[in-house]
Structure formats: structure tokens, C-alpha cells
Design brief:
Elements: H1 14-23, H2 29-39, H3 54-61, E1 68-74, E2 81-86, E3 92-100, E4 103-107, E5 111-113, E6 128-131, H4 134-148, E7 154-157, H5 167-177, E8 190-194, H6 198-206, E9 212-216, H7 222-228, H8 237-251, E10 255-261, H9 269-279, E11 284-290, H10 304-316, E12 320-323, H11 337-347
Parallel strand pairs: 4-7, 7-8, 8-9, 9-10, 10-11, 11-12
Antiparallel strand pairs: 1-2, 2-3, 3-4, 5-6
Helix pairs in contact: 1-2, 4-5, 6-8, 9-10
Length: 349
């Protein structure tokens, strides 16, 4: 595994950029110009920095690791856009652009591949290749906003990868996207989703950010969860819930529990009652997600009737619950599907 630890231009704060520019024997004001080109004008290439001297642009080119669009799919059902982007080293990642009444939302990837091994997810097939830099995470949003011409107001870090497995770059990304000199997207409009690495949940809580934390729960007992999520062999549900409570205490932000409904695995009425008992009395929100089937797994999507019954049981226990509206089902919008298809086609050449 190659860890992309080296800072690229898009990952640097204004202070770091200033120091870098000074190292190049350039005036400090160039740093503000470069920051503005990257984080406001959303450039795709250093050559677009027209007020930067050509000689400096030549130096910067080696340090700006942008991305390029490989594929853009647009759903005929709901207008969801699915993007496949190529990174500087040839790896590809996915991002999704979704339109909602409350604003446009982008779901981004935090890693190339994933090592968490969740059974129903295509993202983890093939394992982890490397982490994304903060700049590569930002570039997904910047590229989508530039391509669509529409403002992004909400960010979900729920694409390929486990964000807490790329912790330092995640925090840097949040600070930069929230920077008032950049896009200045509110922390309250950012959701970070994790499969449940307990020490990292607590560390994240200690950052005292205002983001929403979402735990991928997917089961109401440890035995069932271990069948779906290998991480459950290391951390029990009780440990995860304790960490979530700590997050709430430190931030005042209620936790969202994601529950992917898999037919005949975790979607029965008895499963719903056990989940209601487990979460009863907690200040939380449950997001029910009818799973998108993938060809590499045998899991099937729960019926609409099962999903509605599940929701009804939770609501009877006075638990705040919603069913996530499926977006982009006609364009392989489930995490990892488009990247997987691209790799299969290119490896067969």
C-alpha cells in the first residue's frame, strides 16, 4: 500500500502555501493568489493561473496533483450524476452528485479502495490501494461544481474508503472546505460515515467539530453484525454505542445510525424490534438504506413492504427514522460499482 502523505498544493493551508512560496524565493502574496485559483476559481490545471508568472507555474505544476474526469453518468430517473475521476497516478475514484430540495449534495471517496471488507459493498473488493490526500478529496467537489455549474451545499464522506482509516487527511479536508477563504461550506453540512473504529470515533469527538457523524450499524446484535462487517470482530456494538454517546457529549451533535437493509439477513420485524430496543432513549437518527445489489455478492434488496414495516416498528418506539431515497439506481450508483466496472474492462484489454 502506498500512502499519499506528501502535501500537494490543493492540500495546503494558506499559511503552508505562503511558506512554500517563500522557499521558492517568490513574494508572499502569490500564495493568496494560488489559494484563490484552487479553492475559489476551481482550476483544473496550473496553466489557468493567468496572473502567476510562467516560470512559477512551471515549478508549481509538479506539486498540483489534480484529477480528470473519465466518465460521467446521468440518471434518467432522478438526475443523479455519477463521476469516475482519474488521479495523477492512474488510479480511479468515484463521486456522486445528487439534487435534493435542501440543496445539492456530493458523496466523495476518501481512499482508493477499502480494507474494511464489508460484505455487501463493492468498494472493498480488491482491498485498499492508497489514501487520498485532502486535495484529492477537495478536487472531487471542485470538479463536480465546475462541471455541473451548480453550487454544492452538502458533503457526505460516504463513498469508497473508510474516512477514519485516512484520519489526518480527513481532518485537513474538513478544515479546508470550511475555510472562509475557500468554498466555506459549513461543518454542519458535512457528514462523515464510519464502519466503527472506536478509538478514532473518540478522537474525532475530541476535535469538537460541528459535523454529523454517521455510524454504519447494519445489525442489532454482535453475531449478526460480524457476518456483515469484519470490523465487528474487533469492536462490539456496545463499544460503538459508547463511543457514539461520547461524540454526542463532546459535540452536541446527534449521531446518525445507518442501517442497510438486506433481504432475509437483517430486515425482519424481529430485527426491527431488537434495533428499537437497542437504540431506545438515545438522541439519534436512523437512516434505513435498502441495499443496492452488486453482482459479486448474493445479497438482495429488501422489499418495499419489509422496509415500511421496519420503519413503522421503529417509529412506534419514538425513534427518529427515515428511509434513504435510492438515487441513481439506473447508473450503478452504489459505492464502488463504476470503479469496479472500469477496472474489469481495462484489465481485460
Amino acid at each position: 500500500m502506498i500512502d499519499n502523505a506528501e502535501l500537494d498544493l490543493a492540500s495546503m493551508t494558506i499559511e503552508e502555501l505562503t511558506n512554500r512560496i517563500k522557499d521558492m524565493n517568490q513574494p508572499a502574496f502569490r500564495a493568496k493568489q494560488i489559494f484563490d485559483w484552487i479553492h475559489n476559481k476551481l482550476i483544473l490545471d496550473v496553466d489557468e493561473m493567468t496572473n502567476i508568472p510562467i516560470g512559477l507555474r512551471d515549478q508549481l505544476r509538479k506539486e498540483y496533483k489534480g484529477l480528470s474526469m473519465v466518465t460521467r453518468l446521468v440518471s434518467r430517473e432522478d438526475g443523479t450524476n455519477k463521476f469516475l475521476f482519474k488521479l495523477y497516478d492512474g488510479n480511479v475514484i468515484e463521486s456522486v452528485f445528487m439534487r435534493y430540495k435542501h440543496g445539492n449534495s456530493v458523496c466523495i471517496s476518501s481512499q482508493v479502495g477499502c480494507r474494511m471488507g464489508c460484505r455487501f459493498c463493492a468498494s472493498t473488493i480488491g482491498g485498499l490501494i492508497r489514501n487520498l490526500s485532502a486535495g484529492e478529496m477537495l478536487s472531487q467537489i471542485y470538479s463536480i461544481q465546475r462541471i455541473t455549474g451548480e453550487r454544492v451545499s452538502n458533503i457526505v464522506i460516504m463513498g469508497t474508503g473508510e474516512p477514519f482509516d485516512n484520519y489526518d487527511n480527513l481532518i485537513r479536508f474538513i478544515r479546508l472546505i470550511n475555510d472562509e477563504k475557500g468554498l466555506n461550506i459549513s461543518q454542519r453540512n458535512i457528514t462523515v460515515s464510519s464502519c466503527g473504529i472506536v478509538p478514532m470515533i473518540k478522537r474525532f469527538a475530541d476535535e469538537k467539530l460541528s459535523v454529523t457523524f454517521a455510524l454504519s450499524l447494519h445489525a442489532s446484535d454482535d453475531e449478526s453484525r460480524r457476518k456483515l462487517m469484519p470490523i465487528a470482530h474487533k469492536y462490539s456494538i456496545d463499544e460503538c454505542l459508547e463511543a457514539c454517546e461520547y461524540y454526542f457529549e463532546q459535540t452536541g451533535r446527534r449521531v446518525t445510525f445507518e442501517y442497510s437493509l438486506v433481504k432475509d439477513e437483517n430486515d425482519s420485524e424481529s430485527h426491527a424490534r431488537r434495533l428499537a430496543s437497542l437504540l431506545n432513549g438515545r438522541n439519534c437518527h436512523i437512516n434505513l438504506i435498502p441495499v443496492n445489489p452488486i453482482k459479486e455478492r448474493n445479497y438482495c434488496r429488501s422489499s418495499e413492504d419489509s422496509v415500511e414495516k421496519f420503519k413503522y416498528i421503529l417509529e412506534k418506539s419514538k425513534i427518529n427514522v427515515t428511509i434513504r431515497r435510492s438515487m441513481g439506481r439506473d447508473i450503478d450508483a452504489a459505492c464502488g460499482q463504476l470503479r469496479r466496472k472500469y477496472e474489469e474492462e481495462n484489465n481485460s484489454l
